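User: Can you predict the 3D structure for this chain?
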Amino acid sequence: MLKRRYLFSLATLLFFAVAGCASYMPMGSLYVGAKGGIGASTGEVSYTKVGTAEVTSIMGLVAFGDGSITTAAKNGGIKKIKYVDYEVENILGVIGKYKTVVYGD
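Assistant: Here is the predicted structure, written as structure tokens:
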């Protein structure tokens, strides 16, 4: 009986650790370190300035910060946005950092 409970608990924990949900950002159970694009303007892609904005998540319970494109552009002194990327780093779901990177002039 105790062995059955132990196995059931272990199987349930394993299921939740590896089961993913639909997300627009890459997900991993142990570690995520990814970069991706959000958007770009047409034409020339050269830039002179870079701005960033970041959101931090702790244990998936609380998240704080301003990761908006507007804030990233303001932080970089950017008036004309050329393109936008994002960076994600998450370790075991304990600590996550989500960064918006804006390139422009």
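The chain has two helices and five strands. The mean pLDDT is 81.
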